[in-house]
Amino acid sequence: EVQLVQSGAEVKKPGESLRISCKGSGYTFTTNWIAWVRQMPGKGLEWMGIIYPGDSDTRYSPSFQGQVTISADKSVSTAYLQWSSLKASDTAVYYCARSGTYSGYETDYWGQGTLVTVSS
Amino acid sequence: QSALTQPASVSGSPGQSITISCTGTSSDVGGFKYVSWYQQHPGKVPKLMIYDVTNRPSGVSNRFSGSKSGNTASLTISGLQAEDEADYYCSSYTRSSTRVFGTGTKVTVL
């Protein structure tokens, strides 16, 4: 069974750093892209970026380029989303999602979401 | 890149059909056949409903169908049911090899 299991909720202060994770299982982790998606409270989905764990090829949405870092460690089948200096506006639920096995341009399995709260 | 444009809300009575539009540009929706649709119930994880404009994943009801004309894609829900009440998002591949979501549409079953 394909699963993406994300790390738990985080409460941080502005200016702090953070890395959240997404561990894949039940499939070959290196052969499907992993995307990160933001959902701010009461708002819609925003596509942040995508990584191919096989070679760490990474693409960012222009809105998130330079604001976050996406990485992956294929040895532990885990993708990461990282901030070096959090802002209150980073408060959101963050989802990881796997590119699908149909054409690869859809996402078929999603993690359960990680709530990140940034507050002084 | 800007979010794809969807109506904020669409409503219909049980048994009716509704259509949600998703308008982009020739750099995303109009330029590729890679539009997908997602359903999200409150507090839940998004679920893939349509991929590659018109295709349904295994297990998704055939009451859901997709289409595209020019820079606008559409999701049609026929035989509307109470369980269809949710938020719906389109997504498209883009010329920059990234993806972009739509603004989201709240579907209400009257």
Explain what the structure shows.
The complex is a heterodimer of chains A (120) and B (110). In chain A, 0% of the residues lie in helices and 51% in strands. Chain A is an all-beta fold and 120 residues long. In chain A, a hairpin with a 4-residue loop joins strand 5 and strand 6. Chain A is globular. In chain A, 38% of the residues are buried. Chain B has no helices and 9 strands. Chain B has strands spanning 9-12, 18-23, 35-40, 47-50, 64-69, 72-77, 86-93, 99-101, 105-109. Chain B is globular, with a radius of gyration of 13 Å. The chains are: A mainly beta (120), B mainly beta (110). The A-B interface holds A 35, 37, 44-47, 49-50, 59-63, 95, 97, 100, 102-103, 105-108, 110-113 and B 1, 3, 32, 34, 36, 38, 40, 45-46, 48, 51-52, 55, 57, 87, 89, 91, 93, 96-104.
